[in-house]
Amino acid sequence: MSRPARATLIWRGVGRWWPVAIIALFVLAATFAPLLAPYDPNYQNLIGRLRPPGTVSRSYHYLLGSDELGRDLLSRIIYGARVSLIVAFASVIISGVVGTLLGMLAGYRRGVTEIIVMRVVDVFLSIPAVLLAIITVAVLGPSLFNVIMVLALTRWPRYARVAYSQTLSIVTMPYVRLSTLMGAGAVRVLFRHVLPNIIGSVSVVATLEFGLMVLFEAGLSFLGLGVQPPTASWGAMLSTGRNYVATAWWVATLPGLCLFALVLAVNLTGDAVRDRLDPRFR
Amino acid sequence: MQGFLVRRLGQALITILGVATLIFFVQRLTGDPTYLLVPETATQADIDALRHALGFDRPLIEQFGGFLADLARFDLGQSVVQRVPVSTIIASRLPYTLMLAAGALVVAIGIGVPVGVVLALFRDGPIAKLAAGFVLAAQSMPTFWSGILMIMIFAVTLGWLPPSSTGGFSHLIMPSIALGLLSMATFARITRASLLDELSKDYVRTARSRGVRTPRLLVRHVARNAAIPVITVAALEISNLLAGAVIVETVFAWPGIGQVTVQAILARDFLIVQGVVLLGAFVTVLLNLLSDILYSVVDPRIVLERAR
Amino acid sequence: MKNRRLLAKAFMALCLAIPAGSALAAKDRVTIDLSGEPSSLDPHVQWNPDSYYIYRNIFDNLLTRDDKGDIVPQIATSWKYLSDTQIQFQLRDDVTFHDGKKLTADDVVYSVKRITDPKFASPQLGQFDKITDAVANDAKTVTLTTNGAYPALLAQLVKLSIVPKHVVEAVGKDAFNLKPVGSGPYKFEAWQRGVSVTLARNDAYWGRKGAFPTAVFRAIPDAATRTANLQAGASDLAANLDGDLAQQLKNSPRAKPVPVLTERVAYLAMNVQKEPLNDPKVRQAIAYAIDKQAITDGVLGGYEKPALEMLTPAHEGWVDGIKDHPFDLAKAKALLAEAGPKARQEISLVTAPVYDQRVVQALQQMLNEAGLKVKIDMTDMAQWLRRMQSGPDSIPQMAFSRWSCGCQDADGVLFPILHSSSGWANAKDKTIDDALDGARQTLDKSKRLAFYKTVHERIASENYIIPLYQAAVIYGAAKNLEWTPTPNESIFLNRMGWKD
């Protein structure tokens, strides 16, 4: 390592940690929402609608203002973190696990398994993910569970493809062959030898996907296909708040900034992870 | 080589068929558009009569057979809502979609590639950090929000640009930027990666050791080689742009394919959705096929690897 | 190859087109932003609000409604009932279609037969299928026969566009849809798919001529964008805004909100056969628990008006002085306590994205405050419609809905919602069925009113449905546009003009 690079390392360390700090902050807010939120996020105070930050109405202290039904924006943002994070985490984990397993299986078993899995992957990858998501949510009906399932359904092929191509090259390595010759079963080979080797590439895909899933959820909310009202989600708050950009800026801007900060932090972290894993950029 | 071609064509056909099947049945899981077409006052008998006239009371398998038969003749059918051939609808929207995609690509490449170059050359310098932050930030905002903010600022407050719809080059600017912002980061990443890749190659090291200066090196040798992956990504990104335009087109009332498809999905206008999705799948499959064939021509070793 | 030509053509169009609504063009061109593109401009093959806004200007009807809402002559100059089932119309003889040919009784007969032909499968068939025959007695006399007395006939005929027989027969259905020819104050000029429909003034129109030589209807799906267009001066009129966007326009130097109360009534629908809503006490509690004023003033910005019955003063069959249950939370709570624990079971309130979710959420909170357990169940419009018309066994427990028959007649509202023969209905109330049947069989206005009074009172006492408010349509208009919108949600171009 050359000297200038070493000199910036500490600074870089600090610089790299703030996105993680932001993510941690949101995760904490989501986890302890009931303790942190000053009010019930769904309680409407119709007399105090669209109040600017810092106003008081009927003994309500709207620290960050109130929304179109007089609900406390701060409480909704805190609870909204839950929905945005749950949707992103759950859909990334489900699609990641399913996609990776199927990809590994296809790469290891070959034959019919490979043909079926990879053709299905092709089918899914040749339908624009956004459209497929909209079609399925429209048919299933919008709800938190359905949104997660639909996002998982449309995104797993990405992991499958990565896992598949990496598995193909790993199973030909001498030590894996040796272990197979010594009688190791499929499960053992896949989880002892293949998975540890591909988990890096899969997690790079996952970090990229995470930010995308947060934005997808918001996009579905904009089209009226997000989570059910009155559940607070940043995407839903942002899309209803658009009607008030000129009259009550805080309704859209504040959840919008949170969403922006989360996605940005995730993307920065993702890029950092990628640089770590890719030897070229060290 | 021939065996490979036949095999790849077969796979492509299976993929298209799979897409057709999936899209056909998913859409029909919960009913048909009849209820959306009639006034509230229509009686059940009226509704049944219309459903019969539209053919939605036939068994699903029969409808599917008809759809495949039409498809084999390259007939995408007629929209039940607009009562116009689906091909007419797609053809009238396609030019706008292509224009928007081109505009977005110009924005994304115009900003993304230079940022990638900066990232590769200056690594962790403050300029690189700023540039990286900018492209990542641009990607982190939902377009339905950034879109309306742009409209409020540049059309309503400043009056520089028309707020929405089509009508001249100026109408294309804001939607292109809104859409282009999303893929800037992709181009910056790939440019940076392929530049670094190239710069670490032996010929560059040799040239450098011989005293060739970096700018000259970049322009004469590196740029050309590094451009190949960027162009490949651009081709792939086009299909992403076509689909990603759904929300941008809605916000800016841009009459592209994305907008008409979302409306068709909500209106249960099955045939438009099928037509658009199949067309998209066809283009994707075709591009993949072409690139595979090209690769195999360039480097026959890849054939075996890819054919799997 | 074909695509390339198309592309080139579109590009040319893009470069050559005059920027819509620029200050220069504003005087002879009016630009109207609708939320969608018309599905078709053939007035007989769809039931779609965006088509309706446009084609009403291209076609004439036998009758129309004036700005006060009264039914007045249009193509018909006068009409008289020959019997309870036969009505004869005298037609104008100075009306020509846009292609120069005269409009005669044959065209009227053709239009009626076209839309009522089951094989034609018009979505509007249900509005006209009481008409069993149409005969041209001479070039300017038409007789319509109905299946039994049909009091809503005139109200329905306001929407039956007269199409030219010679054109439709010559070009066929699909071509007519793309290039409609009518006799109205504006003629079809161009349809740029997905972008706009352009109409040109019909200078030979027999009636009141339009003020604008050209009118452009554009499809702008996002309401916030429609509002921005008005503020930026890029459009002159926008449909389908809400109270909050109207607020935004109030602060604009260029535009103003133009609200009007419509014939549409919002109500809470219930399935009174299902637990716990089969208990009249629970329904009464619900009626007491809803604060209609808070919804109209608090949530909706004061443009809507609380409703006491399912009709508005604009309807035939509206009765003054119906008493509803005034908001009284304490009474609601007491009634639910009497109803016992079964009232605490979960009730799903079905809704779809097109309905104002602010109102739905406000309703949920009001009902839950009284002690119910209401959960919102979001679905899409196609499924919402299917479930709501699926009969008493499967209609959802509760739904928020807004109803308009587009005919301003009680029969188009109360009959489908409450009569046992309708898919929407679940009350199974003999008194209501009899009154609705009775009102359908007489042309006598006072008798009909008496029947409908029975129905209104029965609704108010049994709470089968809870009328909530008379809905407003909020348009946005350029400051210099003069226009008085009417309750029937139509945009008649020849009734607007520029303010000097």
Topology of this protein?
The complex is a heterotrimer of chains A (282), B (308) and C (500).
Chain A: H1 3-31, H2 33-36, E1 55-57, E2 60-62, H3 73-109, H4 111-125, H5 129-140, H6 144-170, H7 174-181, H8 186-222, H9 234-241, H10 249-277
Antiparallel strand pairs in A: 1-2
Helix pairs in contact in A: 1-3, 1-10, 3-4, 3-6, 3-8, 3-10, 4-6, 5-6, 6-8, 8-9, 8-10, 9-10
Chain B: H1 2-27, H2 34-37, H3 44-54, H4 60-72, H5 86-122, H6 126-139, H7 143-157, H8 169-199, H9 202-209, H10 214-251, H11 257-266, H12 270-298, H13 301-307
Helix pairs in contact in B: 1-12, 5-6, 5-8, 5-10, 5-12, 6-8, 7-8, 7-10, 8-10, 10-11, 11-12, 12-13
Chain C: H1 2-16, E1 29-34, H2 49-55, E2 63-65, E3 71-73, E4 76-81, E5 86-91, H3 105-116, H4 125-128, E6 131-138, E7 141-146, H5 153-157, H6 165-171, H7 173-178, E8 186-192, E9 196-201, E10 214-219, H8 223-231, E11 237-241, H9 243-250, E12 255-270, H10 280-289, H11 292-299, E13 305-306, H12 329-339, E14 346-351, H13 357-370, E15 373-378, H14 381-388, E16 398-403, H15 411-418, H16 430-440, H17 445-462, E17 465-478, E18 481-482, E19 497-498
Parallel strand pairs in C: 1-10, 1-11, 14-15, 14-16
Antiparallel strand pairs in C: 2-3, 4-5, 5-7, 6-7, 8-9, 9-10, 11-17, 12-16, 12-17, 13-17, 18-19
Helix pairs in contact in C: 8-9, 10-12, 15-16, 16-17
